[in-house]
Prior knowledge:
The chain contains 17 helices and no strands. The chain is mostly helical.
Amino acid sequence: MYLTDRSAPAGADTERGRRRGLRPKVAPVVLVLGTVSLITDISSEMVTAVLPLYLVTTLGFSPLGFGALDGVYNGVSALVQLTGGHLADRVRNHKLIAGLGYGLSALCKPLLLLTSSIGALGTVLALDRTGKGLRTAPRDAMISLSTPAERQGRAFGIHRAMDTTGAMLGPLAAFLILNAAADGYDAVFGVSACVAVLGVVVLVLFVPGRRQDTLPGIAGPRLETPRDGAATRQDTAPPRSGVRQDTPPDAADAPQGRPPVRVREALALLRLPRLRALAGCAALLGLTTVSDAFVYLLLQRRAGLPEEWFPLLPLGTAVVFLLLAVPLGALADRVGRHTVFLAGHLALLTAYALLLWAPATPALPFLVLALHGVFYAATDGVLPAALAATVPEHLRASGLAIVGTSQALARFCCSLGFGAAWTMWGYGPALAGSAVGLLCCAAVAGLVLRPTGGTR
C-alpha cells in the first residue's frame, strides 16, 4: 500500500512526477477503499452465492416470490442512494456516510440466522441494501475526487478489481463452509457477519476522515444554480474591506469555503444534458438486465449442475471481472467510456443467447460466466468514470447517486417482471423477452450516447 507524504502540499508529488515524465501512482484512498470493498464483498457474496438456492430449494419460494425478494435486494438501495449521495455532499464528509452504510449492512448479516418467512427476510434484505445505498455514492465520490480526470477509468477499474477479488473469495468460502459444516447455511451467515465487521474496522481506521484538496482537472464543469445570478453580481462589485472577492457570502459557515449543498442544487444536476442521457440510458438498459441470481439459477438448470456446486457460479463471473476490470477501464479512457459500456451489454446479450439456444455441453457454464464477467468489467466501473467529467466536484456524490438510483430502480422492476414471467410462461420465454428488449435498448442507448464534442 502506498503511503502519502504529509510534509508536502497536496498534489506536490503528482506535479513532481509529471515534471519527471513519470506516471502518477494510484491515490492511496483508492487502494484503502478497495481493501474495504474486498473485505465487505467477501461477506456479501458469501450470502449472495447461497441465497437463491436457499430460498428456492430450502424454503420453497416460487420464481415470483424469489423475484420479489431479489427485487427488494437490488432495488431498495436505489431509494437510498440519492439520500446517501446528497447527505455526503451536504455534510462534506463522505467517509461518515459511507461508514454508516457499511455498518448497517454488517448489522444485518446475523439477522439472517433468525428469519425464514418472506416478510422477515424481505425486511432484513431491505435494511442490508439500505446500507449499500448509503455507502455507494460517497465511496465512488471519494475515488473520483482523488483521481485526475484522465485516469478515472483506471482508478475505478483498480477499485472494482479489488472489490471483485472479494466477490471471488466469498463464493469460494461459502462453498467450503457448506461442505464442512453440518448446518451449512447458518454457518455461512454467521461467518459472513464477522467478516463484515472487519470491513467496517478497516474503513474507520485507514480511510482519511477529511476530504483532500481537489486535484487539478477533476473539479468538473460549473453548474449554474438559482443563486448564481446574485453571485455574479456580487463578483462585479468592489470587495468589502477584509473580505476576499472570491469568497461566497456564507463561506465562513461551511467547510472548505463552500456553502452546504442544498437539495435544489442536487436536483439541478438533472438540467445537465449529459447526466440526463447517462441516467436515462442506465435505466433503459437496467430494465432488461436480468439479475445475477436468475442468471445463475438458469445456468444451473440448463447445464444440470449439482446443487452443491451452485455457490461457485459467481466465482466464475468474479474471476473474469478481476482479470478485465483494469484493462477495460484503461481501454475506456482511451477509446471512449460509452463505447466500452455498450460493448459490455452486447456481451451480456450473447450470454442470454447461449442460455437460450446453446446445447448443454460442459463448455456452456464457462462461456456464460466468462461473458457475464466481461459485462461487469465493461460497465461497473466505466459508468461512474463516464459520469465524473459531467458533474461538478462539490456535487459528485449526488450525481453518482442519481445515475445509480435510476439503474437500480430499473433492475428492481426487471427482477419483478422476470420472476412473474418465469412463473407464468417458464424461463425460456422470459429470457427471450429480456434478450429482445436488451437488444432494442442497447440500440437506443447507442444513439443517445453518441460522442459529442469533448465527451467520451
